[in-house]
Amino acid sequence: MSTAKTVSFRYIFYSLFTGLGIFLVAHSRPEETQLFWGNSDLWREPVLAGVFCGFLSALLGVYILLNRIVFISLAISQGASFGIFLSYFVAGFFGISLAQSPISFIAGLLVALLSAMLFAWLRRARRIPDESLIGLIYVAASGLTILIGDRISEGHHNIDDLLFGNAVAVTPYELKIIAGVTFALALIHLVFRREFLYASADPEFMKIKGLKVKFWGIFLYFTLTLGITFNLKTLGALPVFALMVVPPLISLKRAQGIREAFLVSLFLGILIPPLGYYLSFIYSFPTGSSVIAVSCLYTLLSFGETFLSRLLFSRKG
Amino acid sequence: MQNLALQLQDLVVGYPGRVLTSPLSLQLPVGSRLGIIGGNGSGKTTLLKTLMGIQSPLQGSYQWKPGSQFGYVPQESHVDPLFPLSVSDLLKMGMLKGLSRFRKTSPSYRKAALSMLEEMEIPEREEALVRDLSGGERQRALIARAWINKPQVLVMDEPFAAIDHRFKEKLWGIFSSWQRDHELTLLIIDHDLNRVINQVDWLIVLGHRGTAVGPVEEILKPETLSHAYGAPLHVHRENGQFQVHFL
After folding, report:
1. Does residue B157 share a domain with residue B62?
2. Across the interface, do A201 and B85 touch by the CB < 8 Å criterion?
3. Are B113 and B88 in contact (CB under 8 A)?
4. Residue B219 maps to which CATH number?
5. Are B156 and B240 found together in one domain?
6. Do B208 and B157 form a contact (C-beta atoms < 8 A)?
7. Are B116 and B141 a contacting pair, CB within 8 Å?
8. Does residue B212 sit in helix, strand or coil?
9. Which fold has domain A3-316?
């Protein structure tokens, strides 16, 4: 089966089930559904932000899965937490308030970047398994966050927002920032797709061919960190983790080419967050948990996809 | 001065705490074939990786002709099977700098890819995933990747593993034609001693007792080889072909 046919089949399969899900929910909860569609101004920005986050997470997640480093997003999130706590700790020491300041977010981003750079640098230079390095960064960042967190008095609410996301309160300004970051990172990944992919797939060969493998590795982690940190602010650590794992996982399970892997992953990344928001509104679930639940549901659906695909196409060999 | 592809000056390779070779010195002319032979764990792959800049020498130095580009065929594919890379992607890895950044393929790539795959007798496998290829097909695809952008130096680490006998013979002919048309310098590791010594003009023998470097005619003396391998052996020539027999 050609890539175009496989991708089309997978798009149709997941679109049909998403549509069916929305229809069944609307049928069982007509009043809430009416309320949902009647109050689009309440959810327009958050849902669009979720779509951008899902797109970006699904794009970056393909690299994360291919490089077998799925827990890197949690380690980077923890690095960001430490940076945020550290900024509040230092500000408190000098008697400065960071309540309305972007400094804490910038500090989180910087420490997250440092953590990712450290990982990128060490993973090729030392014979330490990736999982151990990720675990080490996660444990160190978590321990330091708890130590400092105990000593700060201001800003716990802001920290929670930054770390666990505030999915229902996205302003038009924040939406523009999320869209801008998504567009910029997607463009970088489109232009340098081969460098990122080939340096990940066979670093030794690409080094011999003259590609600066270490540079591209570090650049890839730089984009991952930017994506993860900005997504954290919108969705929170666990939903971002789910969106970085589930769409690429489903996509790669049956992908017959790298193009298909990205196309299907991006499609699922766009599909999952709006459905999560929708169910969260209808059933009054916490939004982040709803996005995670929908991700799990799609993972289950992927077994059905595999079964149906074998049934329909296996004879063609 | 001779047109040299590679110069070794007292080069010692290995890992910190584990020296694998005694000092190697060599002046290899452009267009030569250099065979690297030796037992398991004697440092053949480490020597190639050192010459490719993957790891640093323990001692001494080496110098390639300035501007040399390399093709490399590893012992086995290092591409993680998780990557759904096609043979076409593999070939693109070999000519990354010649590819269009925004288009899927370029005419120069299409022409080079088709010609390489036909030469390797796998034209119908262009869109197949690397992980779905048989061992022999994968090896042919790796050779195609190494040669697609016509480098000046082709380095091959046991390229014949998993390749059938007929195609092995054909490959030597293909290498000869590449060398004739492109002044290609070839470095090759092969475990089949009696095959490689009759196909190359320079040899590096990495033995447990010592190393020997030089033109094939000089190296293929029983005393030199016996010393390197640390085992008695007999060398004779039959119908113009060298034969080595361990006693």
Report:
1. yes
2. yes
3. yes
4. 3.40.50.300
5. yes
6. no
7. no
8. strand
9. ABC transporter involved in vitamin B12 uptake, BtuC (1.10.3470)
pLDDT classification of A165: cutoffs 50, 70, 90: low
Q: Considering its fold, how many domains does chain B have in total?
A: 2
- Best of A208, A262, A265 to substitute, by most chain B Cβ atoms within 10 angstroms, is A208
DSSP H or E run through A268: helix A258-283
A210, A211, A258 member nearest B85 (Cβ) = A258
| CB A111, CB A89: distance < 8 Å | no
Residue type, A177: I
The per-residue pLDDT for range A300-311, each reduced to its tens digit, is: 999 999 999 888
The neighbour count for residue B161, using CB atoms within 10 Å, is 14
CB environment A49-69: b (16+ within 10 A), e (fewer): bbbbbbbbbbbbbbbbbbbeb
Q: In chain A, what residues touch B148 (CB-CB under 8 Å)?
A: none
Rounded distance between C-alpha atoms, residue B26 and residue A229, angstroms: 53
Alpha-carbon gap, residue A107 to A195, rounded angstroms: 29
Which of A202, A208, A252 is opposite residue B79, by nearest beta carbon? Answer: A202
pLDDT at res. A124:
66
Cβ–Cβ < 8 Å for B143, B73: yes
ipTM of the complex: 0.89
Question: Residue B113 and residue B105: Cα distance in Å, rounded?
Answer: 10
Cβ-nearest to A198 among B69, B93, B155 = B93
